[in-house]
Design brief:
With about 270 residues, the protein is α+β, with helices and mostly antiparallel strands. The chain has 2 domains: about 160 residues, Regulatory protein AraC (Jelly Rolls); about 100 residues, Homeodomain-like (Arc Repressor Mutant, subunit A). It is built from 11 helices and 9 strands. Strands 1-2-8-3-6-9 form a 6-stranded antiparallel beta sheet. A hairpin with a 5-residue loop joins strand 1 and strand 2.
Length: about 270
């Protein structure tokens, strides 16, 4: 793992096996370059395959979970601080953010893969450069160039049919995903999210059935369980503290809820 002296960037290579089932979270931005193998993931509540040559772009409102990874699965992970992220994404258009939320996993051609391998080599140089001030400026520009290249691929060079306006149902689904990310710790009821979207719970259920093949409540529960797993595997929070964090009435209620969805208690999951 490499981290620059200003703690603005974290670079690591991982198989993500210890993260399986839990939400992959970032406060700034995270780039995942799939080096080899493949994994079944959920991105914004939809199942996808993340395979060799793909790039995933994860922002704080992206719901990203690795469900199952093959034995040789490896990724290069680059995580940026919120401050550096803000600087890097400043020139990007609103169309970029609309498209990247819809297409957070990007396939690459052979030529593009060669280019991002070179980009990663330069990343190592910039993060280890001893001239701190110059290195930071070069690295910021280096990151900006990558995001601008992604914008060109998604927005400017994309086939015209890919740039049709996003249907209202898809916009509502994306809005639901973002609301779940922001509020799942405290709000577990479907009506809360439907009211926020100014639609009825019934209409929300029709949208999630059409796009994700399931109910809003199942998607909310799925995200809550993924977040609990994340806390169990990455923090020292007690089960009681986690129950309080998610506004459960008691630790025993959290235990029953977690067992119903995973087949084990939080303590058993943490030991595993």
């Amino acid at each position: 793992m490499v981290q620059n002296r200003e703690t603005e960037c974290r670079v690591a290579t991982s198989d993500l096996h210890t993260s399986c089932g839990s939400a992959l979270r970032t406060k700034g931005c995270m780039l995942l370059f799939c080096l080899q193998g493949k994994a079944v993931v959920s991105v914004n509540l939809e199942r996808r395959v993340f395979r060799s040559g793909n790039i995933a772009v994860i922002f704080p409102d992206t719901l990203f979970v690795v469900h199952k990874a093959c034995g040789d699965f490896r990724v290069r992970m680059i995580e940026l601080s919120p401050e550096l992220t803000d600087e890097v994404i400043l020139p990007l258009s609103s169309a970029f953010f609309e498209r990247i939320y819809d297409e957070p996993i990007l396939p690459t051609t052979g030529e593009e893969r060669t280019l991002w391998e070179t980009w990663n080599t330069l990343t190592d140089y910039y993060t280890q450069c001893s001239a701190a001030k110059s290195a930071r400026m070069m690295f910021r520009n280096h990151l900006q160039n990558l995001f601008l290249a992604i914008e060109v691929k998604l927005v400017f060079d994309a086939p015209a049919e890919n740039l049709k306006s996003i249907p209202s149902s898809r916009r509502l689904f994306n809005g639901f995903c973002k609301l779940v990310t922001e509020n799942c710790y405290a709000r577990h009821e479907v009506k809360f999210y439907a009211d926020k979207l100014c639609i009825t719970p019934y209409y929300l259920s029709k949208i999630t059935a059409r796009i994700a093949g399931t109910t809003p409540k199942q998607l909310i529960d799925w995200q809550i369980v993924a977040e609990i797993k994340h806390l169990l595997t990455t923090t020292d929070m007690t089960v009681t503290e986690i129950a309080d964090r998610f506004h459960f009435d008691s630790t025993s209620y959290l235990g029953r809820y977690f067992r119903r969805h995973t087949g084990m208690t939080p303590t058993e999951f943490r030991k595993q």
